[in-house]
Amino acid sequence: MSKRTKHGSPLGQAVRERRTELGMTQEELAHAANSSQKRVWQVESTATRVSYEALCDLADALEVPLEMLTIRARVIERDRARAARSSGRA
Questions:
Q1: Residues 82, 47, 67, 17: is their CA dihedral positive or negative?
Q2: pLDDT of res. 4
Q3: Looking at the 3D structure of the chain, how many domains does it have?
Q4: Is the residue at 41 inside a domain?
Q5: Exposed e or buried b for every residue in 52-90, given b needs 16+ CB within 10 A?
Q6: CATH at residue 57
Q7: Which has the closest alpha carbon to 42: 88, 8, 6, 82?
Q8: What dihedral angle (degrees, nearest 10) is formed by the CA atoms of 32, 66, 8, 20?
Q9: pLDDT of residue 5
């Protein structure tokens, strides 16, 4: 799950999608996850490495099991691969 596109990593996109579903800002998520807004931005926007503990904190703040974020990230990764193949970029 370390592939990066203009949308960040699949895991970062999964975090961003869940955060927006809850109507949270990056700052609100950061506060709830005992992190910083800059770190949340990095997770959502880049292929930055994230510790297991930080992922667990984000998942808790997003009110989902960590497994749901990783499943969502795999679906995003699959969808990106399909889109790339269909557009001839694979």
A1: negative
A2: 43
A3: 1
A4: yes
A5: eebbebbbebbebeeeebbebbeebbeeeeeeeeeeeee
A6: 1.10.260.40
A7: 8
A8: -50
A9: 46
**Secondary structure of residue 8 in the 3-state scheme:** strand
Q: Which pLDDT value is given to residue 6?
A: 56
Rounded to two decimals, what is the model's pTM? 0.85
In a domain, 67, yes or no: yes
User: Bridge partners of 8?
Assistant: 5
Specify if 51 maps to a domain: yes
Task: Report if residue 57 sits inside a domain.
Answer: yes
**Tokens 């596109």 sit at which residue?**
5
Going residue by residue through the chain (90 aa), what tens digit of pLDDT does each one get? 344 445 689 999 999 999 999 999 999 999 999 999 999 999 999 877 889 999 999 999 999 999 999 999 999 999 999 999 988 765
Show the beta-strand stretches assigned E in 6-63.
Answer: none
> Which domain range does residue 47 map to?
10-78
Side chain identity at residue 52, one-letter code? Y
